[in-house]
Amino acid sequence: MNGGSMDFLLWVRGTGFNIAMVVLIVGVLVRLIEILALGRKADLAPRRSDGKGSGWRTIFTRSIPPPGMLKASPVTYIAGYIFHLGLFIVVFLFVPHILLIKDLLGISWPGLPSALVDAVTVITLITMVAVLANRLTDPVKRFLSGFEDYLVWALTALPLLTGYLAFNHLTPDYTFMLALHILSVQLLLVALPFTKLMHAITFVLARWYTGDIFGRKGVAS
Amino acid sequence: MSSGKTLGEVLRDQGVSRRGFLKFCTAMASMMALPPGSVAAVAAALEKARRPSVIWLSFQECTGCTESLTRSHTPTLEGLILGQVSLDYHHTLQAASGTAAEHARMQAMKENHGKYLVVVDGSLPLGNPGYSTIAGISNVEMLKETVEGAAAVIAVGSCAAFGGIPMAQPNPTGAVSVSQIVKDRPVVNVPGCPPIPVVITGVLAHFLTFGGLPELDELGRPLAFYGDTIHDRCYRRPFYDQGLFAESFDDEGARKGWCLFKVGCKGPVTHNACATTKWNDGTSFPIESGHGCLGCSEPNFWDAGSFYKPLSAPTGTINQVAAGAALGGVAAGAAVAWHNRKIRGEARAKHEPVTLDDLEKSS
Known about the structure:
With 221 residues, chain A is mostly helical. Chain A has helices at 5-13, 15-38, 54-61, 69-72, 74-93, 95-105, 114-137, 139-144, 147-167, 174-191, 199-216. In chain B, strand 5 (133-134) and strand 6 (137-138) form a beta hairpin.
């Protein structure tokens, strides 16, 4: 019996999920080992200042805009904050998502009411549209943008859009939309190690590295 | 056998009051999502309808569907057999046995050629015909032979509709659904494990009223009964929307009747009428009894992972796959790192420092 939407849902919850996880795990490990194995040249110069801990501090301090930058690029910062925070709330504080993590890792935490997550989804989506509009209208950003930037935007927006449509039953076939939502997340996970999305993991390493180097040179932020 | 009397005549003979009859028509019209004004039309059609001959075939099944039918309350099973339809062949319910039973089937087929209904519960084994036989006839052979003169086929239960439990991996008998065999007759799927009795009788009533089959969804299920999901009509839905969930079957939330999503309820993707028609004369339905929906009226629910896993979790266990991927990732990462170091080493080996002479030459 061809179950249509239900077969699709069972595939994404079964085979599709396994494929996505394998690609994600292999991809992230390859990228991380590749980066870490590059190593660092020995710094022969003595430390300029007591920059110990600068690397760890920078992981957090780089989340705050440098002086004047908020005024110079308001859309980048404000929309960037809202979008990243919104994404965090939607991904990690929506009960069905927590249940997925609990099933995989055995850990869980309290979630937010679905209606609140739903509202955050809308705000996040609107912000993503603003970010895209800014990218398209700002001549410098437009010049610097390539195919990958638009692909990454689409891969991030699709799970939000399909999740919103599924949760609110805005399409006739909920099962199909739920399956499409899970598939869109899987596409995001598959692309993560091989695109700029990898920053979700490497931002910690990169900031620590930068902070540590700056600390050594006496210009710790 | 199907008599020449109309349904109205048969019911009057049995002492069914006009009021009782109209009550049944109202219930049927309501279930079929028809407007209130259509009750009179339903009554008029049913009054004149002749009882159709029904041949009920049971193949690879557990008799749960027949058990469900015997709990029918609108109409009752007796009312259904004696009143609305002429149930001419049904292993569990018929008095005849052996050759006499098969003779009854043949006679019903001959006398009502082109007009009788075939109801099937159970899936059909395509492997060794000996997996399931009746009177020495294989299930597939009996189905093909019986539907040849049928007006329509009603696949009752998830086994007949979608293959059901016999089809569960690794499907040892090669079980298939009715619609995979019957291609030249209209087939209505009435899935459920078991299906709701009033849904079975509702489909029969529709056939009697309109002389045809109800509107179906893409899986061949009557939209009137399978148009909404359990989640859409669930009385626990407000708790889902508020984010109030039972964490286990015996916790505070469960006692307060909170949503069962976390303990594996498949209501959001299950299309059926349990939440509205309920069971046992409208007493309750599984979720009202404290258990999540299994999704039994959906294809492949038997292979969809644990009944107690939330819908958002993967159907299988990923631990081994993840461990394998991690090992593979480390190995691949090491290989890439080694390759990069080799390239860097080669570049260093080939590197020739620029001397002052070189610079002077180029200038």
